[in-house]
DNA sequence: CTGACTCGTGTTTTT
DNA sequence: CACGAGTCAG
């Protein structure tokens, strides 16, 4: 019976996809080129496993974002709904999410056995940096003669050691040679950092993986965790790191029930210690691996594929793949030379509107760029013209200072020993700085009994009138049973609002953000769920944060290339395709880095289904680096657009492409800018 | 010890 | 231009 249903449904898979979807229990590696229906294959594989009788809660699906997991499971549901197998919500039991989120979930269950408080809180990157700073002050490493590495660098070094499973001297020598002098201090710093985290019952991103690994080190616990799952499926395997690979091999030692999917040509996370070796060496690591290659592309037109195939063919190394398509030839991609950034924005908007006129929704179009700030000018122009957009990547709301302040209050209530949250919350008050807040947190640690020690604290006059309201707030938040999340946030806001007004120049928009935050509260079961989710998978876009999107509303997509991974649009505009931007001049230090930038370029171009525009401004008024803002410089087209790649593009200037009317306008503007800059340059 | 101030440096991508 | 480090007055 199940078999008949199977055959009915698998009809829309090609031969390779079907082989992968129906594969049995032995280790399976799916090499899936861009747009080859990788998600569809995984979806059918999960559905197949369930149809064959695997209980949904015995399947672990590891994806790169929670969104990807949710999308996939929704599609599994719809596949199952078309069969006579059990219906919806079966898949809600599948364990789906990122490595970090799954680690958090497992550690809440089993952490106690390895001495972990189940009420641990999670540090995001900036929290971890802050804690490192506190520890550094504790250790008196502030007054060293040479400049100490910045906290961001310290954390980067620490994370590289953890994620790549390598030792400190090696990491410093290979990736941070300028920090060689500080090696001893760093070792001391990291040791104390580990102690402080344990004391405070907090885990950073690395810890989530390390403790999961630790769980699997203990024979008894390992068996319990392993026996929980029959199948483990990993998406985007090319972007996993050494630690994650180790967790997998401990979870499925012989590779039985293990499926990994990825594309070495799209590996773009080496800065997070991801290594292509994981995917390349998978067959060696798990003898008996079946390798399935997906090469038929369903996404892009042959015209676009011809260009992208050439881009990746020029890469130094990688699995040879030749993606092909049955689609009609399609439009040749366009390489657009723009006079300057203004003209680039004008051109892109003009084209977007043209496509919309022709019936393409804004949602089906996306503007991509290397770094978040590359879109600022475009954003201003879109707002001016009342074109709605949603931006992915870049600074998240959760990372803004005022949101962090408010979250710190909640986190302190959740975990009294959370040093970072506590110090952040305490220093909000006038008269309390780093020293006093550190002492106050120490008091909590040394004397049990909630926030009692604080009732007797000696504080400067400036603090005394605010102090009782903080104590009252914490008291309320810690009530048992936990108060309604809405009221928690509301009270925290009421407490924080006056402080916010003193602290920031522009309190109004910040205050509005906090209102939004309160409105978001009902989405979460409780405070712990909210805190965990915000640390592991924060709202990614403005829209996400602003509450339920109106479905009938249309909006354009803006995204960093990294955040565009796995997605596709009818029309794609890659802007700032100039050397220095792609490849970023932060990343031209080594050949490997340049190769990764090439793959990034490849990922950007392969997002396009029907239309592809690559734009490159010739002139920048602001030099990419340096303090002189008013000088201009000339940019080179990205080095990845070699002649043999460019052959697959139609080349022209933005003014021609945009048509007669735009021509005058753009030229006048360019001339104006040119003169303006000349006049200014007389004075610099 | 805190908080307002100045000076100099360096600037990506994200779980 | 923004952020960190260093300086100095309460």
Strand and helix layout:
Elements: H1 2-9, H2 15-22, E1 28-32, H3 38-51, E2 59-62, H4 66-81, E3 95-97, H5 99-110, E4 121-122, H6 125-138, H7 151-164, H8 168-175, H9 183-200, E5 202-203, H10 205-217, H11 219-226, E6 231-234, H12 242-251, E7 258-262, H13 277-280, H14 282-285, E8 290-294, H15 302-313, E9 334-340, H16 341-357, E10 365-369, H17 376-384, E11 389-392, H18 401-414, H19 419-426, H20 434-446, H21 452-455, H22 461-464, H23 467-477, H24 485-503, H25 507-520, H26 527-536, H27 542-545, E12 556-560, E13 569-574, H28 591-605, E14 608-620, E15 633-634, H29 643-646, E16 650-653, H30 654-658, H31 660-681
Parallel strand pairs: 1-7, 1-8, 2-3, 2-6, 4-5, 6-7, 9-14, 9-16, 10-12, 10-13, 11-12, 13-14
Antiparallel strand pairs: 14-15
Helix pairs in contact: 2-3, 3-4, 5-10, 6-7, 6-9, 7-8, 10-12, 15-28, 16-17, 18-19, 18-24, 19-20, 23-24, 24-25
This protein binds a DNA duplex (15 and 10 nucleotides) through helix 5, helix 10 and helix 20.
Descriptive overview:
The protein is α/β, with parallel strands linked by helices and 684 residues long. It is 49% helix and 11% strand. The protein has 31 helices and 16 strands. The strands form 3 sheets. Strands 9, 10, 11, 12, 13, 14, 15 and 16 form an 8-stranded mixed sheet that branches. Strands 3-2-6-7-1-8 form a 6-stranded parallel sheet, with helices on both faces. Strands 4-5 form a two-stranded parallel ribbon. Helix 28 links the parallel strand 13 and strand 14 (608-620). Helix 18 crosses helix 19. It binds a DNA duplex (15 and 10 nucleotides) through residues 64-65, 98-101, 124-125, 142, 147, 150-151, 205, 208-209, 268-269, 271-272, 370-373, 393-394, 430-436, 460, 462, 535-537, 560-563, 584, 586-587, 600, 624-627, 629.
């Amino acid at each position: 019976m199940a078999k008949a249903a199977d055959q009915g449904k698998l009809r829309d898979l090609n031969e390779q996809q079907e082989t992968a979807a129906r594969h049995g229990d032995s280790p399976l590696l799916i090499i899936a080129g861009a747009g080859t229906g990788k998600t569809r294959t995984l979806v059918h594989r999960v559905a197949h496993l369930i149809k064959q009788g695997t209980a949904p809660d015995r399947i672990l699906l590891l994806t790169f974002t929670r969104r990807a997991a949710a999308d996939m499971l929704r599609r599994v549901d719809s596949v199952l709904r078309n069969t006579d197998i059990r219906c919806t919500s079966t898949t809600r039991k599948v364990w789906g999410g990122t490595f970090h989120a799954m680690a958090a979930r497992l550690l809440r269950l089993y952490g106690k056995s390895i001495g972990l408080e189940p009420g641990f809180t999670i540090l995001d990157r900036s929290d971890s940096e802050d804690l490192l700073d506190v520890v550094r002050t504790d250790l008196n490493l502030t007054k060293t003669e040479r400049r100490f590495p910045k906290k961001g660098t310290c954390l980067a070094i620490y994370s590289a050691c953890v994620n790549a499973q390598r030792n400190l001297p090696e990491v410093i020598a290979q990736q941070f040679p300028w920090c060689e002098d500080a090696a001893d201090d760093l070792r001391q710093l990291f040791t104390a950092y580990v102690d402080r985290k344990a004391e405070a019952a907090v885990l950073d991103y690395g810890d989530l993986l390390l403790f999961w690994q630790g769980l699997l080190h203990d024979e008894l616990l390992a068996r319990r965790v392993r026996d929980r799952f029959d199948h483990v499926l990993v998406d985007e395997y090319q972007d996993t790191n050494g630690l994650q690979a180790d967790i997998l091999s401990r979870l499925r030692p012989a590779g039985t029930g293990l499926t990994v999917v990825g594309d070495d040509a799209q590996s773009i996370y080496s800065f997070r210690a991801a290594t292509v070796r994981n995917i390349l060496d998978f067959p060696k690591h798990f003898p008996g691996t079946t390798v399935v290659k997906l090469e038929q592309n369903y996404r892009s037109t042959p015209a676009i594929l011809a260009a992208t195939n050439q881009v990746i063919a020029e890469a130094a190394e990688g699995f040879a793949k030749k993606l092909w398509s049955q689609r009609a030839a399609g439009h040749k991609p366009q390489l657009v030379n723009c006079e300057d950034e203004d003209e680039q924005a004008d051109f892109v908007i003009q084209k977007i509107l043209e496509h919309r006129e022709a019936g393409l929704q804004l949602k089906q179009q996306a503007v991509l760029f290397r770094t978040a700030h590359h879109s600022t000018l475009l954003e201003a122009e879109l707002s001016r013209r009342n074109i709605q957009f949603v931006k992915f990547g870049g600074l998240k709301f959760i990372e803004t200072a005022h949101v962090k302040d408010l979250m710190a209050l909640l986190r302190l209530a959740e975990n009294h020993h959370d040093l970072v949250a506590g110090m952040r919350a305490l220093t909000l008050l006038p008269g309390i700085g780093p020293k006093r807040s550190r002492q106050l947190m120490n008091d909590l640690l040394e004397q049990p009994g909630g926030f009692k020690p604080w009732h007797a604290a000696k504080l400067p006059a400036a603090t005394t009138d605010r102090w009782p309201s903080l104590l009252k707030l914490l008291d309320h938040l810690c009530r048992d049973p936990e108060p309604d999340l809405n009221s928690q946030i509301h009270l925290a806001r009421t407490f924080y609002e006056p402080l916010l007004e003193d602290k920031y120049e522009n309190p109004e928009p910040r205050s509005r953000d906090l209102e939004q935050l309160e409105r978001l509260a009902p989405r979460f079961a409780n405070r712990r769920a909210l805190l965990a989710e915000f640390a592991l998978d924060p709202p990614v876009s403005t829209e996400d944060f602003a509450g339920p999107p109106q479905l009938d509303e249309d909006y354009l997509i803006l995204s960093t290339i990294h955040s565009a991974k796995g997605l596709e649009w009818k029309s794609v505009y890659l802007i700032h395709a100039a050397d220095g931007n792609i490849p970023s001049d932060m990343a031209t230090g080594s050949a490997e880095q340049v190769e990764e930038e090439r793959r990034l370029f490849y990922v950007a171009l392969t997002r396009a289904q029907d239309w592809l525009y690559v734009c490159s401004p010739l002139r920048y008024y602001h030099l990419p680096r340096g303090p002189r803002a008013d000088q201009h410089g000339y940019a080179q087209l990205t080095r990845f657009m070699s002649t043999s790649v460019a052959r697959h593009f139609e080349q022209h200037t933005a003014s021609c492409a945009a048509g007669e009317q735009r021509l005058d306008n753009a030229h006048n503007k360019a001339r104006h800018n040119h003169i303006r800059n000349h006049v200014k340059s007389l004075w610099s």
